[in-house]
Specification:
With 302 residues, this protein is mostly helical. Helices cover 79% and strands 0% of the residues. Helix 3 packs antiparallel against helix 7. The longest helix is centred in the first third of the chain and has 30 residues. One of its GO terms (cellular component) is plasma membrane.
């Protein structure tokens, strides 16, 4: 029991770190190329989905079984369009119109909705540890995004709307695929989710052209695009895979290190400023991980 918990903790922390790093990478890509959010996501989702499913197929995994059950493939399509594509598109667009740190912080508001949903579903109040984690995370994200003053929040109406959609998308893709993952496995569901999302976006983006994309990218931007695809795919697999070992509340709250990672990388690499209150925010976000790493009394007894 303890070993499984540690595996889950390692998976979510690794996945959150990769996702935190990918935000500044995407921001750099937009700053150094003419890629739009839609074209970027078409490439990212299609390539990641095809590669993931191809690896599973050649390792003799059953990747088509889910399509034999109407109720499950309907769930899968909903996950691919609203969960995978919806969350990523809102996230990427938020980066495009603001910054990587802002996008990650809006995403992190999702755990609040998840905690409320789980509490209502189970008809149980969150534990003291979970409540402390929520408080620490909220305080941390407030300081991180405002540097101690609400007046420092300067977001356009579009950024706020896209940010809120990112929050909803994050909540949905955390909760919706749980039964599918239990039946078919994490990587199968993630692979199909990415491929479905990529196909839908490709159909929507009728002006998408591989030739135009090839002329747009340089060696550096192409390399960055591939790194973003790899890191983003791994982060999704690790994040949702951790749901096998941890509760949805724990998994979503442990992802609180994402804004901290994104902020640190943005400072070191993209030369963004970082104030004393933001450092305090980073401390509180780290405290969230510490709180949720402590097993509850029930888990210790088991």
């Amino acid at each position: 029991m303890k070993t499984y918990r540690y595996v889950g903790l390692l998976m979510i922390i690794s996945g959150a770190t990769l996702w935190g790093i990918s935000g500044p990478m995407i921001q750099w890509l937009f700053q150094n190329s003419s890629l739009t959010s839609g074209k970027f996501l078409v490439v990212r989702l299609l390539l990641a989905g095809i590669i993931t499913l191809a690896i599973l197929y050649f390792t003799k995994k059953n990747i088509f079984g889910v399509w034999k059950h109407p109720r499950q493939w309907i769930q899968l399509i909903i996950f691919g369009v609203l969960g995978m594509l919806g969350a990523q598109y809102a996230f990427i667009e938020t980066i495009h119109v603001s910054t990587a740190v802002t996008a990650v912080l809006f995403q992190f508001l999702g755990p609040i909705l998840i905690t409320i949903y789980v509490a209502i579903q189970t008809k149980k109040m969150p534990t003291v540890i979970q409540l402390l984690a929520v408080v620490a995370a909220l305080v941390g994200t407030f300081f991180l995004i405002t540097n101690g003053s609400v007046e420092n929040i300067v977001l356009s109406k579009k950024a706020i709307i896209l940010g809120l959609l990112t929050t909803l998308g994050f909540t949905f893709y955390t909760l919706h695929p749980a039964s599918l993952i239990k039946e078919w496995g994490t990587i199968v569901i993630i692979g199909w989710g990415m491929l479905i999302g990529g196909i839908v976006l490709f159909i929507y983006n009728q002006d998408f052209s591989v030739m135009h994309l090839a002329h747009t990218l340089t060696f550096n931007t192409l390399s960055m695009l591939l790194l973003v695809i790899i890191s983003g795919t791994l982060s999704f697999i690790l994040y949702i895979g951790s749901l096998k070992y941890l509760s949805a509340t724990e998994t979503s709250l442990l992802s609180s290190i994402e804004p901290l990672v994104a902020a640190v990388v943005s400072i070191v690499w993209l030369n963004e400023s970082f104030g004393i209150y933001q450092l305090i925010g980073g401390f509180f976000i780290t405290a969230t991980v510490v709180f949720l790493s402590i097993p509850s009394k029930g888990a210790r007894k088991k």
